[in-house]
Amino acid sequence: MKALKVTRLIFMLFISAALSGCIEVNTLITVNNDGTGTVEETVMLSREIIDMITELQSSFASDTAAPEPFQFYKEDELRKNAELYGIDVSYLSSEPLSTQSKEGYTVKYEFKDINNLKINQNPNSRVKLESIDEEPEVDQEFITFNFIKDMPSEIRISMPLEKQLEKEETPEEENQTEMDTTGMTDQLIKIFQDLKFTLAVDVNGKIVQTNAFYVENNRVTLFEINFAELISNSEKLKEFKETDPQNFEQVKKILRSIPGIKVEPNNQLFIKFE
Predict the structure, then answer these.
(1) CA quadruple 189, 141, 96, 68: dihedral positive or negative?
(2) pTM (predicted TM-score)
């Protein structure tokens, strides 16, 4: 039984790492001057991972029942996911996307009041594997918003704090996670080199004042990360391997000082626009 638990743990860690590295998530929040707006999200998953999941489904299927092909784009599920973004958020549209190396989708939601909007910044939250009984727990790292209608209007953005995300490990958890990772470095590099994700806020107007670090025209970028930059930095890569991959705020802290990567340094932002 213990061997089975260890095998499952290693398998789940691999799935977690693979999904983290082979997923591309781009999120754009557009805000109007009355506090309404949209969330448009593009999510792409490596064909290599899709093939792996399909193969796993086949290996666990019974002889009498052929497994259904793995479908990453599920419109019904995306419709239901509107509630994950907050109160009074509704589904507008979606469509599947396909490239030579990736498959995915784009989806658009509408919110009536940005005060009720919440965005889980952790990219692992975008992928659910129904074929796996126990998925790795994904940290709920919500970005929240406060809107003040005035002349000019103001958006206040609260980013997660790392100290709020730290977890205490029990002795049992410590024993489970101690394993020999010798020889995994090359595999981790291969996995994480394709990880890309962005989160940005567009205002339907002109920004007149903000404390945000990355501003271009009417757009504020909260983060824009290409893990290929991390792979080329051996010192930061060593730090990264010692973090919890499910705790995105810890990951951001390491990436913040790497050239070519944008990570907003402030936890409390304001954007005034008219």
Answers:
(1) positive
(2) 0.76
